[in-house]
Design the sequence.
């Protein structure tokens, strides 16, 4: 049973790390960077503890499955471009809305409207709300 529990914990901790990497920017939008730090600490300390237990289990029992899960997750975490994938998906999902904003700027419907910086345009509520709703 203990062997199965460690395998289950390895899956859970690895899934949490991967979930955090894919969703960290959406979570930061909700809770801010400052409140995100305890969440990161919890997830990665949990992952580190399970990895150490998996290494001990590997040495004692010659059972490589929990360690393999942790090791593959670590490689994925280091080498897979999570942020780039999220940005690419976001770009493709919101491309039509962004092209509509570009069209409005080119047609002169949107003009710089910030007093302190005339190179920026604050989007109308209708446009900014629709983009925000799609992100959440």
Sequence:
């Amino acid at each position: 049973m203990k062997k199965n529990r460690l395998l289950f914990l390895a899956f859970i901790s690895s899934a949490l790390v991967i979930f955090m990497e894919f969703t960290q920017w959406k979570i930061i939008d909700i809770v801010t960077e400052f409140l995100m730090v305890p969440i990161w600490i919890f997830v990665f300390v949990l992952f580190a503890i399970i990895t150490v237990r998996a290494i001990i289990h590997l040495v004692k029992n010659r059972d490589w499955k929990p360690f393999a899960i942790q090791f593959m997750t670590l490689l994925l975490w280091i080498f897979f471009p999570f942020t780039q994938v999220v940005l690419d998906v976001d770009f493709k999902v919101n491309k039509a809305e962004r092209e509509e904003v570009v069209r409005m700027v080119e047609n002169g419907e949107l003009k710089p409207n910030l007093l302190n910086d005339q190179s920026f345009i604050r989007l109308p509520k209708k446009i900014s709300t629709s983009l925000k709703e799609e992100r959440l």
